[in-house]
Write a structure and sequence with these properties.
The protein has 254 residues and is of the alpha/beta class. It contains 6 helices and 11 strands. The strands form 3 sheets. It has a 7-stranded mixed sheet with strand order 5-4-3-6-7-11-10, with helices on both faces. It has a two-stranded antiparallel sheet with strand order 1-2. The radius of gyration is 18 Å and the shape is globular. The protein starts with a strand and ends in a 19-residue tail after the last strand.
Amino acid sequence: MSASRKVGGEERSSYYHYFSFGLSSYIDRLLMRTRRSVYQLFTSAFVPTATDRILDIGISANNHPSSNYLEKNYPHPGTIIGLGAEPHPSLRADHPELILLCGDARALPLKTGAVDFVYSHAVIEHVGSRTNQAKFLSEALRVARKGVLITTPNRRHPIETHTGLPFLHYLPAAIWRPIYRILGKGMYASEETLHLLSARLLMRLVLDLGIRPGQSELHKIRWLGIPSNLVLIIRQDSAPEGVNSPSASPRCDR
């Protein structure tokens, strides 16, 4: 999801391939604002305690200031489990208290009710098909005893936030995906790497999983006056019995 550039002689990562548009500094500030808003929604909606265990699905080794916002700002980092698809040993130096796990978010390496909350920022659009997105959400609900927060960019925003390209993603996928390849955005040109969701499609996933009305709520973060990010909050009615420690799960920090 990232590109790199030299800043002061050092390699620095940045998201969304905006450099050709000269908008890097602006996008950096926008990303920080968005992640701060998501974090504030999480803490205000759930009010997690010092002992609540949080699973963060989608940790990153990217050194962008907005990366791993939860780990950088949550006052009890030792209660966070960070899940990544591959090892990120470099995170150990920055977050020594963090438990790092390797795994697939569509089949989490955790037992039912292993954590209190699941927090995942802008991952569900990268897990593939609608079926895979349903598995992602179902797994988050399975392991979380108290609640789940999941965010995703809004497909209805005129600017596709991963590339900065306007309007093309409004076209049928059979048309915009080949155009992305032609324009050098091939990493976002397949369903496996980018399957955008609108508010309607996201809430349909929720309904299909049998989440009752009143158990979920959808918040919208705006950019240019239009909802750019969707924040789904689901509260679990009750905590499953027999909460399990994740200590036996595949570790990423070894």
